[in-house]
Amino acid sequence: MTETETNTYDVVVLGAGPVGENVADRTRAAGLTTAVVESELVGGECSYWACMPSKALLRPVIARADARRVPGLRQSVQGPLDASAVLAHRDYYTSNWKDDGQVGWLDSIGADLYRGHGRLTGPRTVTVTGPDGGERVLTARQAVAVCTGSRAALPGLPGLDAVKPWTSREATSSQTVPGRLIVIGGGVVATEMATVWQALGSQVTLLVRGKGLLPRMEPFAGELIAEALTEAGADIRTGTSVESVTRENGTVVAVTDTGDRIEADEILFATGRAPRTDDIGLETIGLDPGSWLPVDDSLRVDGHDWLYAVGDVNHRALLTHQGKYQARIAGAAIAARATGETLVAGPWGAHAATADHAAVPQVVFTDPEAAAVGLSLAEAEEAGHRVRAVDVDLSTVAGAGLYADGYQGRARMIVDLEAEILRGVTLVGPGVGELIHSATVAVAGQVPVSRLWHAVPSYPTISEVWLRLLEAYRDA
């Protein structure tokens, strides 16, 4: 029996996705020795089964849709997409599910990588079981950062495992196009994957338990996307629950609460996420396995001055870019505490992830795109702000008409009537994903409406919607 190897670092990071990588980058930049533990591919969910492959799949779909709205070009792009080329494009952006490049990056910043399953085995201690079954114990002088992310949550339908359903991983990595695809859910994964596979040739049936799509956004976002998906040929059924799922001779059969029987080649469950904390040793430090980990704004876990939870696991904002933002804050906070520096922990301070509460941006890469930052009207009112929603039809903007014939879209800004700042902005329409950062700057910067009048949009761009929104607010 070999002796267990023990190594000590300033910081141990559990999980080498984008969040863990960014924590390691910041702690190494501060001169702290850092170990990173990963049980799968370095680069995590985003690089191989989420952000990158999904957007690589969606880009040809959106480009074709845009081209079909441009005179002189639409006739050239009426044929089907080359599915093989689209899937190959996706494979390229996942590096064919190999992580050599990201491993090289970790090495370049001086972080040590330990491959295997890491579990907390007490305060400041992580035991890594390697692929060969051998164990190594890592001890952290300053901090352990849990960056293990989340996984797809499946409903408790009897016999579901035998059906072998798709989750987001299979939906973004499939090497074939199913002839018929059932999608369960109405959120971001459901709408984006319905967009992809319908465009690649699947007949998509979208089953939504709620009243509409994208329930966390302004209602008009889901309505416009539902209209476009229906026009593309998808069958959308709202207010519908699945009672049972079976696979008979290779065919998936879903029975709904209304008694409808729907057959397909594959079925995708896009029904939420669960934290990947069920087997990381939380019980050894008095926390519940499988739970989300509540944190303060420096991302430190409540009641544990050495433990940080960064990214999806804290359930603050399940978005890669927001997790990376948290990682930068957490890394800076870990470094500050390690050196005895006073934390700047107030709102918008260097060691406070304030944007998680006030300015979370998101883009849904459907056709049309939907983009939002900050609070919706309902959220702002629920928070007790005295606000006004200001709406503009994006088709009235000259740049939108030039962008696409028959442009359809809508913009809304939520104005705090007391502070005279923006609490939120939502944009829906072709190309709006590239507009959301200007809205994010306005919301995060708490720029007064009076100053926004001096931010002159270039003509003729879709960004002129800012002027139209301000005019609508002034004239209301």
UniProtKB/TrEMBL annotation:
**GO BP annotations listed:** 2-oxoglutarate metabolic process
For the ligand (NAD(+)), the binding residues are G185, G186, G187, V188, V189, A190, T191, E192, G272
Cofactor(s) needed: FAD
Record-linked Pfam families: Pyr_redox_2, Pyr_redox_dim
Any S-S bridges, and between which cysteines?
C46-C51
Q: From the Swiss-Prot or TrEMBL record, what is one GO molecular function term? A: dihydrolipoyl dehydrogenase (NADH) activity
Please name the SUPFAM superfamilies in this protein's record.
FAD/NAD(P)-binding domain, FAD/NAD-linked reductases, dimerisation (C-terminal) domain
Residues annotated as domain FAD/NAD(P)-binding: 9-321
Cofactor binding annotation = Binds 1 FAD per subunit.
Q: What is its EC number?
A: 1.8.1.4
Q: Which keywords appear in this protein's UniProt record, sorted alphabetically?
A: FAD, Flavoprotein, NAD, Nucleotide-binding, Oxidoreductase
Limits of the Pyridine nucleotide-disulphide oxidoreductase dimerisation domain: 360-466
Gene3D superfamilies named in the record? 3.30.390.30, FAD/NAD(P)-binding domain (3.50.50.60)
Q: Which parts of the sequence bind FAD?
A: K55, G118, T148, G149, S150, D312
Which protein family is named in the record? Answer: Belongs to the class-I pyridine nucleotide-disulfide oxidoreductase family.
- Name the chain's protein: Dihydrolipoamide dehydrogenase
Q: Which species is this UniProt entry from? A: Streptomyces luteogriseus
Q: What is the lineage of its organism?
A: Bacteria, Bacillati, Actinomycetota, Actinomycetes, Kitasatosporales
